[in-house]
Amino acid sequence: MTGLYAHIPFCSVKCFYCDFAAYSGQGKLADRYLAALEAEAALHPAIAPETLYVGGGTPSELTAPQIKDLFARLRRAYPGPRFKESTFEGNPESLDEEKLAVLAGAGVTRLSIGLQTADDALLPAVGRHHTAADFKEKFLAARRAGIPAISVDLMYGLPGQTLESLRATLDFVLALDPEHISLYGLQVEDRTLFAKRGVREDSDLGREMFELALERLAAAGLEHYEISNFAKPGRRSAHNINYWVRGDYVGLGCSAASYYDGTRSSNEARLKPYVEGVEAGRRDLSESEKPAGRDATGEEALLGLRLVEGFEPSANLRMAFAPEWASLKSRGLAREKNGLWMLTREGIFLGNEAFRLFVPPFDREEILA
Ligand SMILES: C[S@@+](CC[C@H](N)C(=O)[O-])C[C@H]1O[C@@H](n2cnc3c(N)ncnc32)[C@H](O)[C@@H]1O
Ligand code: SF4
Fold first, then answer.
1. How far apart are CA 326 and CA 324, in angstroms?
2. How many CA atoms lie within 13 A of 196 on its CB side?
3. What confidence tens digit (pLDDT) does each residue in 47-79 have?
4. How many whole angstroms separate alpha carbon 17 and alpha carbon 162?
5. DSSP letter for each residue of 162-184
6. Which residue blocks in the chain are alpha helix, DSSP H?
7. 352 contacts: CB under 8 Å, gap ≥ 6
8. pTM exceeding 0.70
9. pLDDT tier for residue 367 given thresholds of 50, 70 and 90
């Protein structure tokens, strides 16, 4: 399968934890940026994508006419059949009824709304500019607009967040009956305000929070299908699954990643240099590599093990990483069932322990010890 991603890098403000290519105060560049997305499409090979994901940044920062323009441009660039799945990310402070109507009219099948936490004391402390009530209002408006599925982005391990606060957030969100939830543990990224402030990840509390969430989400009928993703039956994100099974995708926009012809590449992340490059007929890259040998084989496990129900390893992977696999199994972090490789519950909590065996420099010390 082939997917199409379009990155919209505009945000009203920068959240204190966020290291994505997301810029505030740059809305004046939006029209030029949308034209650049269409122009960039012509710099990639012709593809017939089945899924579309408009992510960010905050795509709902675009005005309603700009959202219409974005979809018209994507349609012109990819005139094949309608996307089977079309996702659009939005935040409570910038979604409104007019934009939701445009999204429904453009065939958006999934709206992903960023909430992070429903704790009104915590939201401003992580740099968010909306309340839980704002979120609920926009969630219900999206339902009225007829968008078929809604996903909610949540975070745990935020500084000052308690188990009680997370429990209340989950109850609040589950009462709205969303089709999908993404739940991310805070990662303190360099170059963020949290890093400058010396915020630390608390793995013990983080684990308790994740356990609590697993229990609550399962009880609500949401299947845990990827480390950070939960869905009602039949409502998994086809676009994202395609990443984990190493399907092809084209990514348009600053910082957007692509994978086709066996090559992984990422676009220039800075907004203005990206636009200027495309306007000059170039696709400037921040990186490009064609994984081969052990790198490519390790990547198969790195991505496949994110799928909770596992993946079928190639003969090559079984052979090249036999000692690593044996070590993960003996430590109770992974198991094999019906020919599929998967992490155990313990392995899911300690995912990074498992994953680093499959990426360069393929540290084997621990295995051989
Ligand atoms: C890049 S944002 C784009 C969507 C939208 N702008 C929003 O704020 O929800 C996608 C999601 O990534 C997650 N995220 C961003 N930075 C993170 C970090 N440092 N650690 C964990 N999750 C993070 C948040 O849950 C966020 O909703
Ligand atoms: S989390 Fe979302 S809203 Fe906040 S800065 Fe990042 S992309 Fe923008």
1. 5
2. 7
3. 999 999 999 999 999 999 999 999 999 999 999
4. 17
5. -HHHHHHHHHHHHTT--SEEEEE
6. 30-41, 64-77, 97-105, 122-125, 132-145, 163-174, 193-196, 203-219, 238-244, 271-279, 293-304, 315-320, 322-330, 345-349, 351-355, 365-368
7. none
8. yes
9. low
Give the tens place of pLDDT for each residue, 169-189.
999 999 999 999 999 999 999
**What is the 8-class DSSP label of residue 361?**
T
In Å, how far from its chain's centre is CA 63?
23
Three-class DSSP labels, 187-216: CCCCCCHHHHCCCCCCHHHHHHHHHHHHHH
**What residue ranges define each of the domains in the chain, with the CATH number in brackets?**
2-242 (3.20.20.70), 293-368 (1.10.10)
How many angstroms does the Cα of residue 112 sit away from the middle of ligand 2?
A: 13
The token duo for 149 is: 């599925």
Q: Is residue 8 lining ligand 2, measured as CB closer than 6 Å?
A: no
Whether the CB-CB separation of 38 and 73 falls below 8 Å is answered with yes
Cα–Cα distance, 297 to 204 (Å, whole number): 32
Task: Compute the distance from residue 324 Cα to the ligand 1 centre, in Å.
Answer: 32
- For residue 195, CA distances in Å to 10, 135, 140 come to 22, 27, 35
Separation of alpha carbons 218 and 303, rounded Å: 23
Closest ligand 2 atom to the C-alpha of 56?
7
The bridge status of strand 229-231 relative to strand 223-226 is antiparallel
Which helix (H) or strand (E) is 250 found in, with range?
strand 248-252
Q: What local confidence, expressed as pLDDT, does residue 368 receive?
A: 53
